[in-house]
Amino acid sequence: MENVVVTINRQYGSGGKTIGKMLSEKMGVKYYNREIVKLASEESGIDEAMFAKVDEKMVSSSFFKPKKNVYSGELKTPDSYDFTSDDNLFNYQAKVLKQLAEKESCVIIGRCANFILKDYKNVVSVFVHADPDFCREQALARVSIPEKEIDRFIEKTDKFRAEYYKYHTGRQWFDLRGYDLCLDSGKLGFEKCVDEILAYIRVRFGE
Questions:
Q1: Distance CA 79, CA 143 (A)
Q2: Which CATH superfamily is domain 5-205 in?
Q3: Which of 99, 148, 196, 200 fits a 20 to 30 Å CA distance from 180?
Q4: pLDDT tens digits for range 55-82
């Protein structure tokens, strides 16, 4: 296996991003999170701010439940009326993810990467979760939100991610069948989560 790509989906507060950064450092590979937005902007020529606005969330009104628009790989051209639509923004991010998977080993956070790259033999998909107390503690250390409001913030963030995932993939974000590994960071801790992912890579692909 010339290169290995690890995709990480995560509950808010579970430390998925931290685990991803630690893993990339141990593997000696690049870490991609919001960098995907920048790369997609450069690839398409569309303003980066437009990508950031819909990054891992649906922007439709709560009164409107969007239908699924499962990703198929089609890209709209600049002369198309919906060139800057949410769907096409997603498609350009997907194009970038595929390019990365084909050329280098890396760690990718969120953005439905496990679904987009599901047919790639060199991809390891991970879901990181934890119990509410652990997520609450981690979230309070990261964001300036009153403690009484943090549970609602976590729930809202995870809901955005789940709706975004279902819209673009037709699948449930928390359906564990969509992942190779599901890790409880509250029980394992971040370092051992990294160790588990590395152990899986060694068993699956060899040293």
A1: 41
A2: P-loop containing nucleotide triphosphate hydrolases (3.40.50.300)
A3: 99
A4: 777 665 443 455 677 888 889 888 888 8
